[in-house]
Amino acid sequence: MNWASDWTWPFRCEGCGRAYPSHGFHYRCQNCGSPFGLIDESIVEGINSNGLHRHWPTFHLPPQAEVISLGEGNTALVPEVINQRKIFFKCEHLNPSGSFKDRGTALLISIMKYMGVRQVIEDSSGNAGASLAAYAAAAGIRAKIFIPSYASGVKRKQIEAYGALVVPIEGLRSETTRAVRLAAEDGETYASHAHLPHVHAGLASLAFELVDDLGTVPGAIILPVGQGTLLLGLDYGFRWLRRHGKIDQLPRLIAVQAQECAPLWARMNDKRKPGQRREGKTIAEGIRISHPIREQKIVAAIQRSKGEVVAVDEERIQSGRDVLSARGFFVEPTSAVVWPAILETLSRLADPVVAILTGSGFKNP
What we know:
- The chain is α/β, with parallel strands linked by helices.
- 34% of the residues lie in helices and 16% in strands.
- It has a domain of 187 residues: 3-Layer(aba) Sandwich (Rossmann fold), CATH 3.40.50.1100.
- It has a 6-stranded mixed beta sheet with strand order 3-4-12-9-10-11, with helices on both faces. The chain has a 4-stranded parallel beta sheet with strand order 7-6-5-8, with helices on both faces. A two-stranded antiparallel sheet has the order 1-2.
- The longest helix has 18 residues.
- It starts with 10 loop residues before the first strand and ends in an 8-residue tail after the last strand.
């Protein structure tokens, strides 16, 4: 598998700076082991059309590449009044596979299809695996998804419904990642949503879409954060918009984690144990990540935006899900962490405030 000889890909190693290889499909640098990242200037001007298609020109796809799309993007932005303030809920749980992951997966699978990849592996607590399985099916690519054995049974059935092979792994979420990396070392193509920069480019479309929807830049964005792919995609998109004069400031990024697994919160807030790590059990399984791969970049993005990290306990997560459901938003517990974070931070946030609802409640009823 080789890149087109006349096409330059906008990825470089975040450790040693090497360009993405001209052959194969590598999830991390073969020189130093670091993940690849996007080159800041790689996004170009978009065009007007519906959904994610309006931003396809920004993603640096070769002209001859087939776009694999299931209608992702263009999700609803719903205003609600909370404590006498208007809050906008961005309904990413309404994407085709039921989560925000589809924005990044659409681009990743389009590139893999162009490169001739025929089979992929991935590790996921559910949403990334379901998204990859859906788009791989649309592209005619076989998929094998490694999941923690504790993952929602509904998510597992969704992955299997797309025709993907499911490999359940006992133990912590980190054990699932170890298992898939061993498979990658044996030569299988690892379509990692956590490692591959293609995903961040696709997720940058959410930043463009929010500015289009609101007619201005958000004052703050509240979102669940585990591996931080969505936060990094937003950071990349908003920085591009500011650099090119489309907006004049960055929105504050409010990262929300479950208290039982909150490495970013521990790093930024706990002065007594700044390096504390714990992978405790939480109903917010989508953000149960004790060692984010791009932790330093996530922290830098939060600090650059003058944002913060909030950690919420299990009782408030469940309560948040109940409150959101009562307002008509049926989301999974991972998404529900935004509700207690809204209540905790709203008084110090500038309008307009956006909360991202990342995953459908049908995945974890």
